[in-house]
Amino acid sequence: MNNQKQQKPTLTGQRFKTRKRDEKERFDPTQFQESIVQGLNQTGTDLEAVAKFLDASGAKLDYRRYAETLFDILVAGGMLAPGGTLSDDMTRTEFCLFTAQEDLETMQAYAQVFNKLIRRYKYLEKGFEEEIKKLLLFLKGFTESERNKLAMLTGILLANGNISASILSSLFNENLVKEGVSAAFAVKLFKSWINEKDINSVAASLRKVGMDNRLMELFPANKRSCEHFSKYFTDAGLKELSDFARNQQSIGARKELQKELQEQMSRGDPFKDIIAYVKEEMKKTSISEQTMIGIVWTSVMSSVEWNKKEELVTEQAIKHLKQYSPLLKAFTSQGLSELTLLLKIQEYCYDNIHFMKAFQKIVVLLYKADVLSEEAILKWYSEAHVAKGKSVFLEQMKKFVEWLKNAEEESESEEEEAD
Asked: What range does the record give for the signal peptide (predicted)?
């Protein structure tokens, strides 16, 4: 018997250090650039032909790898170096966005080229948004005419939903802001955006990405006021944007006021101190009493943990509102404020289902506490109510309203007898 171990067979041949598929292809946009430039030179100013050329080229050229190069050429005619200047050692084309006519119609046609390209090659979406962000950072490297065209195009792309309003963060770059480039660019951008849509659509897009409260950052810190913003954009013919920004600031002020109010209540500050603070804030921020009573009501109702049982919550609400009635009374000196409060109570009781049966008891309590007058209650009942829970609440109030009307009639007849 052979005790020697049998030698295992071994594979012989040439060993490769790396597999070919693992080798990273070297980034070299030269050939890609030449192909795109040649195609654009052939199609010239015919943007329909440009769109068809780009559509067909995507099957042959590596758009995914050279997306930035592709967008640079379409916008500036060649690859851009940091800062926004064209690279000297690369082929260029004269047929691009920056050499096109500076008017809205041409920019709309260019927006369609980008729209078709991105719809056809969805993977370019993210790269395109990154390109726009980069171009906005390069604004100082472009001529005024080039900036204007880019601003108009960006506004149209935002309106069409091709890019997110988050790209505006590039405009908050300190150097662009300091030299007034950001604000001037924003004027052209918002004009074309509002031209395509309207201010409500613009506002919705800004809110979606948290840009609605950041527009002041288009200006240096020493000019970052609602007054300066309003004057700048109103003078530029964008009053609707000024009004929107003013409204946003007002909403912000109201939120801060409500927060402070709730803190004062939770600390148990005396009502006279709370009232004095609120009245001072009303003067400072030009908040009307009608708006203020809504804020006070919301703060009062948010300052307590409500019972989840319907039969117990009414009793809890009456006790709570009785305590805070002096605060509510301080901001219902006008008939309109009383009606506003009634509508707030109606909406609150409807939106919070456990309060549906508490509505009438709350109104009667506030009537007895001189917060609500019979005139306001009768007006609400006859015409000023809203649709929310209308049939339920009107039915609840029916007997009390009849009592108020009878009391009013008796009072009038007594006055006549006295005369």
From this structure: none
Q: Collapsing DSSP states into helix, strand and coil, what is residue 14? A: coil
CA distance 84 to 66: 18
| CA–CA–CA angle 233, 236, 237 (5° rounding) | 95
pLDDT tens-digit readout, 97-127: 999 999 999 999 999 999 999 999 999 999 9
* Residue listed under structure tokens 């604000």: 183
290, amino acid identity: Q
Phi/psi at 88 (nearest 5 deg)? -70, -35
Q: 202 Cβ partners below 8 Å, 6+ apart?
A: 158, 190, 193, 194, 241, 244
CA angle 212, 215, 219 (to 5 degrees): 170
User: For the residues of 174-202, what is the DSSP string, one character each?
Assistant: HHHHHTTHHHHHHHHHHHHHHHHS-HHHH
Cβ atoms of 310 and 357 within 8 Å: the answer is yes
* Tokens representing residue 201 in the block: 């659509």
pTM for the full predicted model: 0.66
pLDDT tens-place string over residues 330-371: 999 999 999 999 999 999 999 999 999 999 999 999 999 999
Note the Cα 414 to chain centre separation in Å: 59
